Amino acid sequence: MTTAQQSGRAASVQRSGQEATWTAMVSRAYDHDRPAVRFGDLSWSGRELLDRAGGAADWLDSLGLEPGAAVPALVATSADALALVIGGAGSGHPLAPLGVRMTAHEIAAVVKGIPAPTLLAQTEFGDLAGQVAELSGRQVAMVPELQSTVRALTAGPDQLAAVLHTSGTTGLPKPVPMTQRRLAARARVNGRLCELDPDSFYGGSAPFHHIAGLGNIAVALAAGALITGLPRFSVDGWTLLRDLGTTHTSMVPAMLETLLAAGEARHPSLRTLQYGGAPVRPGTLRRTYEAMPGVRMLNMFGQTEGSPISVLTPEDHREAVAGRAELLRSVGRPAPGVEVRVDSAGPDGVGEIHARADHFFRVDAEGWLHSGDLGLIADDGCLYLLGRRTDMIIRGGENVHPLEVETVLSTHPGVADAAVTGVPDERLGQTVVAFVVPADPGAPPDPAALRSHARARLSGFKVPVRWWFVDDLPRNANGKVVRRDLRESYEGEPHA
């Protein structure tokens, strides 16, 4: 790149309002020749990444797409996927990545809700794209080898940067438009919390279409970090991230427990481990610190529509392992710049969590995100989750929140995973039942012991009355338990 071209790119970043847009943050962060992307043997510098993004923008322009409209895409975490997202955001063709592990029928149902006539697909997803196109009436554009083009990528603060979809546990996944302004705000908040900077090396394994996938990668890109990634989580994949020397990653606690069980959790270069989706067990946290003594543990609570809402900080985790284990049952306190309220709280202080901040994507006219999660705020300011509003069990007029029960059950040493739901009961309306994945499938815990464990920590009406031991729990493509599938399977004979 010539000096004049470099100056032109820098000037375009300055004109775009500096950090008012995510595109401006990324363009400025990678205006250098240091490594920016590493996947296998492929390595791009910062300027090479931006030039590939320019080539992606040129290719997207050639497809005759409607300016500003989202473009559905079957892409997985890769260098080309990053270039497509950056180029699409900076040329008025924001990508809407789709779940490549979903079925063609599931993907087609989502694609039908996106007006664009074209479906993008990387080569490895060509067959799946063909099936989706036939079901949805779209045409397929296969992603070519992206060329390098020196091009100024610009966008207005209120233009779309990308579109993600919710996980769809209770129906069709819903689109969540991510504007440039709000994605830039999220990048600033998350980047500070995770201590991401140009010297960081981020590597994750969440699906690209997920908020934990592209959502976290977008934050790392805005910080100018070196980026890599895995198509899916595995112990071997973690070993690869460790050998590469990554400094930041994200996962769910179940993945961490898999690594600990395999004796592979050590990672000398890891500085920040961000997790979410479930609480981490006290024993798991202690063993994590034994494997990675200096790691910063960070639990961010949020959702596709907006995150983080609250944060359990590295200091909270150190305090928990030092004796305040109850902190791990919370999701911490409001994240910087976030206002949290519990709406329509009952006498027990439980209500729907509403939050307001500049980095939330789907808000009402007054700026509030209606999370759909039930919770309460304790006297110490910590937020405790009690499950989804639609998951609540009403037993004889008493409200039972599944997440509260599951959190207690998960602390039993014989339990690897657990899910709770309500089933019909003629006398009480609903009763509470539990599905448990034993830590040792050959020796599942005694239901009476589980019942006693729960009763010591919960009111009697919250304790499950039936117990099923299962090999695994039904989950959707994003890893969330599908409770309706549990309810459909309870007809079988329980273990107690």
What does this structure look like?
The protein is an alpha/beta fold and 496 residues long. The protein has three domains: 38-178, Rossmann fold; 233-390, Rossmann fold; 392-489, ANL, C-terminal domain (GMP Synthetase, Chain A, domain 3). The protein is 31% helix and 25% strand. The protein is built from 15 helices and 24 strands. It has helices at 3-15, 22-29, 46-61, 79-89, 104-111, 126-136, 180-194, 214-223, 235-244, 253-261, 282-291, 314-321, 402-409, 447-455, 483-489; strands at 35-39, 42-45, 71-74, 95-97, 118-121, 139-142, 160-165, 175-179, 201-204, 226-229, 248-251, 272-275, 296-303, 306-312, 333-334, 339-343, 351-356, 368-377, 383-388, 393-395, 398-400, 415-425, 429-438, 466-469. The strands form eight sheets. Strands 11-12-13-14-15 form a five-stranded mixed sheet. Strands 4-3-5-6 form a four-stranded parallel sheet. Strand 9 (201-204), helix 8 and strand 10 form a beta-alpha-beta unit. The longest helix has 16 residues, at 46-61. The chain is globular, with a radius of gyration of 23 Å.
The shape, in one word, is: globular
Alpha-carbon Rg, integer: 23 Å
Query: Major sheet, described briefly?
Result: 5 strands, mixed
* Low-confidence region ranges: 1-18
Question: Could you tell me the strand content as a percent range?
Answer: 25-35%
Level of helix content? 25-40%
Sequence of strands across the biggest β-sheet: 11-12-13-14-15
Give the distance, in angstroms, between the N- and C-terminal Cα atoms. Answer: 70 Å
Name of the CATH architecture of the largest domain: 3-Layer(aba) Sandwich
- CATH class annotation of the largest domain: Alpha Beta
Give the beta-strand count.
Answer: 24
Number of contiguous helices = 15
Reported by name, the CATH topology of the largest domain is: Rossmann fold
User: What is the mean predicted local confidence, pLDDT?
Assistant: 91
CATH-assigned homologous superfamily of the largest domain: ANL, N-terminal domain
Structural class by helix and strand composition = alpha/beta
Number of structural units classed as domains: 3
